[in-house]
Amino acid sequence: MSLPQIAYSGMKDWPGLRDRLAGRRNPGASVESTVREILARVRQRGDAALAEYTRRFDCPDFTAAKLRVPKAALAKALKAIPAADVAILTEAIANVRRFHERQRENSWLTTTPDGAVLGQMVLPVDRVGLYVPGGQGGETPLVSSLIMNAVPAQVAGVREIAVVSPPRRDGTLNPYILATASLLGIEEIHLCGSAWSVAALAYGTKTIRACDVIAGPGNIFVATAKALLVGQVGIDMIAGPSEIAILADASAEPAWLAADLLSQAEHDPLAACVLATWDKKLAAAVQKELAAQLKRLPRGEIAAKSLADWGALALTPDQDAALDLVNRMAPEHLELAVADPWAMLPFVRHAGAVFLGCHCPEPVGDYFAGPNHVLPTLGTARFSSALSVQTFCKKTSVIAAPPSYVAEHGAKIARLARLEGLEAHARSVECRIPQKRKK
Question: What is the β-pairing status of strands 117-124 and 108-111?
């Protein structure tokens, strides 16, 4: 197969690609109505509803008594997986932790010349719920998702972290998820998935206590549940299907570019993969490589559908037009596969994460380097950011005003209150002004 090819010279060509990619957004009314019903049932019936849904979709003989994973299972899992894998997971966790420790914000106080003390307290939320997809039948555990969500919560100082993940058909959880939790020092893990687990984290049940923030990727049912709960509980982000944009010049290796496009295309039939280049020879070579590599890819059918439906090879007249395209797309992942990526970086305005140079493919960030791989999708990188320590913190303003402050500014504050028609606000201040009190 070949990647659908388009010509892109600037803003006038954007609406066509924008409207095409927009087709990945709408899950349909049937998903939302189903999820609303799930949320209502879990809120009303708690653990019983969790057990019913889990029996229907994951484990036929599941009961509510099996929701909580025993602590002993975590240590057992850690011993069961190869020591070499434990070492890799340990190193990845350390890299992610080191990066996120740089994101910590401090509380602060400042004084003003008129005697007020103003400031901000930065505090972690008390309890966080993390959703970890089980993968295909529980056999492709998304351990990187657990690491990327848990570490910033821990760095933020969250005291309680609860993990939910769907059980395999035999009622167990993949040992790699349990082992990774053990390495992270997380002990509370529950066997439930999809929208019903998100409902449990939001509302609480007898076994799973309610959380302040829910984070973690999932399928359309998980994403829809999170979207419906916005305002009732903190949500990390409403993530859509994965996407990558690659900006490449003649210095790029066609086989590597094809491999990078396929690394996203294999995720999901809705994944979007866009290559922007002004080099026609490179474009033709990448097309040949895609066809050849697809034949050897285990998830080739998924990748082929993704490329055909949502992929694009954009031929541009020059580098400026290619930059215009990727900035308008605001992709989740952006690779700068060019001879001098650092010179191009200042012109990147919108992207969830940027990967510089031909030797830094997107999986480097997905698994190991340290920056978070939970990133804004569907163009939301125009206004939102990667999951971070701040996702699990809240900020409280601090205001202290001595008598002299109200004496000096009280009349002005009262005037502003009366402009808004709030007489009680004005009187609340005026009763503290010395000359007003005497009257």
Answer: antiparallel
How many beta carbons lie within 10 A of that of residue 41, not counting itself?
A: 17
CA distances 206 to 47, 191, 222, 234, 425, Å, are 6, 14, 21, 21, 44
pTM: 0.93
Q: Which residues are known catalytic residues?
A: 332-333
The domain total for the chain is 3
CA–CA dist 77, 184 (Å, integer): 13
Helix (H, G, I), strand (E, B) or coil at 366: helix
Residues 143 and 61 in one domain: yes
Q: Round the CA-based radius of gyration of the chain to a whole number and report it.
A: 26
User: Which CATH number characterizes residue 82's domain?
Assistant: 3.40.50.1980
Per-residue pLDDT of the chain (439 residues; tens, 9 = 90+): 679 999 999 999 999 999 888 888 765 567 999 999 999 999 999 999 999 999 999 999 999 999 999 999 999 999 999 999 999 999 999 999 999 999 999 999 999 999 999 999 999 999 999 999 987 777 788 999 999 999 999 999 999 999 999 999 999 999 999 999 999 999 999 999 999 999 999 999 999 999 999 999 988 899 999 999 999 999 999 888 899 999 999 999 999 999 999 999 998 889 999 999 999 999 999 999 999 999 999 999 999 999 999 999 999 999 999 999 999 999 999 999 999 999 999 999 999 999 999 999 999 999 999 999 999 999 999 999 999 999 999 999 999 999 999 999 999 999 999 999 999 999 999 999 987 665 5
Pairing between strand 188-191 and 160-165? parallel
Structural domain containing residue 18: 5-25+240-369
Rounded to whole angstroms, the Cα distance separating 235 from 213 reads 6
Lookup: tokens for 154: 């821990």
- The CA distance from 265 to 1, in Å, is 13
Best CA proximity match to 290, nearest among 271, 269, 313:
313
Instruction: Indicate if 77 and 153 belong to the same structural domain.
Output: yes
Q: Could you tell me if residue 189 is inside a domain? A: yes
Q: How many helices (H) and strands (E) does the chain have?
A: 18, 14
Q: How far apart are CA 82 and CA 86, in angstroms?
A: 6
Calpha distance 226→406 (Å, rounded): 44
